[in-house]
Design goal:
Elements (H helix, E strand, L loop, with lengths): L3 E4 L5 H12 L3 E4 L4 H8 L5 E3 L7 H11 L3 E6 L17 H22 L3 E10 L12 H20 L4 E6 L6 H6 L15 H9 L5 E4 H8 L5
Parallel strand pairs: 1-2, 1-4, 2-3, 4-5, 5-6, 6-7
Helix pairs in contact: 3-4, 4-5, 7-8
Amino acid sequence: MIRRGIVTGASRGLGLALTRALSERGWRLAVDARGEETLEHAVAGLDGVVAVAGDIADPEHRRRLVEAAGEPINLLVNNASVLGALPLPPLAEYPLEDLRRTYEINVLAPLALVQLALPHLADSARIVNLTSDAAVEAYPYWGGYGSSKAALAQLTAVLGVEHADLRVYAVDPGDMRTQMQQEAFPGEDISDRPPPEESVPGLLALIDGDEPSGLYRAHDLVVAALPEPA
């Protein structure tokens, strides 16, 4: 059986790592990122992967992404996101135009993509929305990004209740050694963070399994999948 999916933000980091893993498992994927050349280079040679470059906040781009996925769609992964204003400012000084853009990409675009994809989803399809511990912990200077991820997590929870025939997951992938992490901590050594590939098994556990809709941490899913010690 052919399995089809969409992965946003697939030119680097967790999105690319997950795209590679799904391609290896025979998935046919439509993937996106803003930079056309970077995206096409990142996914070159991956079987079954179609690159659709564009801004996820653009309705026409979302339409092309869903169209490229084909039918029925078994998986939608909303991974694309932005940190917001940099360097990360306190909320008292947060530029509101930057905050609007952050919410447009991190909250409204994922919901819009879900709305567009819903009529094309297979029975028991999976929707995976990537969130963050900043959605539940009050970290100084992370108010813009964290509140956008908190909103996404709540939208995910409600979608799971409203669409009991689907599996709708909000997943915290944990700290990762990515460009976004480096942008959040300019000049700092982030080599102690694990690579995004270490979060992929947790996502695959949800995609391939039948856990109920809800909020998960990728690390917990990986640990749960480990065999019991002898």
